Amino acid sequence: GVFCGSGGVEPQSETNWRLADNYNVPRIGFVNKMDRSGADFFNVVQDVREKLGSNAVPLQVPIGSEERFQGVVDLITNEARIWNEDDMGMTYKVVPIPDDLVDTVAEYREKLLEEVAEYDETETLLEKFFEDPDSISPEEIRAAIRGAVMNMKIIPMMCGSAFKNKGVQAVLDAVCAYLPAPID
Question: How many CB atoms are located within 10 Å of the residue 28 CB?
Answer without folding.
Answer: 20
